[in-house]
Amino acid sequence: MNRIVILIMVMVPLLWVADGSSANLMVHPEVDCVYDDDLNLSWIRNANLAGNPIDWPEALEWVNNLYSAGFDGWRLPSIEELTHINKVEGVSGVDPGPFRNLKADDYWSSTEYAPGSRYAWSFTFGWKFPHWGYKGYKHFVWPVHQGRCS
């Protein structure tokens, strides 16, 4: 019995550390974005601003034409940035942290599987892993902007 109590006392703080509550994410509600000071990167707070899944070429065009939070210059995140927001900051389809409308589904990255290939990397926020897929598949889009958007 004492061993179970000790194990629980040890595990609870570990669970708290990994719960997705990151001091590195700062919400800027006046411009509806979240700044990640680890990456010096701002994320649109609405993780489904495009409304529907779109294919990779459409996603690139959509973010290149986006004007949001008083800025243009938005882009697709790299696969490393999408992995960071999940693995380091703890953001997932189950625990979206400070974000809204995050789907437990696939999100496009800017990273091609190989330069000029028909495939690109995406991140699944339901299963919490990166994978590559055909650029004609339809995935969600979550724009990022270098620096603060406040």
Q: Can you walk through the features of this model?
A:
The structure is a single chain. This protein has a single domain, classed as Mannose-Binding Protein A, Chain A, CATH 3.10.100. It is 23% helix and 23% strand. The strands form 2 sheets. It has a 4-stranded antiparallel sheet with strand order 1-2-3-7, with no helix packed on it. The protein has a 3-stranded antiparallel sheet with strand order 4-5-6, sandwiched between helices. The termini are far apart.
Q: Brief overview, please?
A:
The chain is α+β, with helices and mostly antiparallel strands. 23% of the residues lie in helices and 23% in strands.
Contiguous helical run count: 3
Question: Under CATH, the topology is which?
Answer: Mannose-Binding Protein A, Chain A
- Mean pLDDT value: 85
Strand content: 15-25%
Major sheet, described briefly? 4 strands, antiparallel
SSE pattern: HEEEHHEEEE
Approximately how much helix is present in the residues? 10-25%
Write down the overall geometry: globular
Number of strands: 7
Q: Which CATH architecture is right?
A: Roll
Report the structural category.
Answer: alpha+beta
How many domains? Answer: 1
What would you report as the Rg, rounded to the nearest angstrom? 17 Å
Give the low-confidence spans.
Answer: 1-21
Q: Can you identify the CATH class? A: Alpha Beta
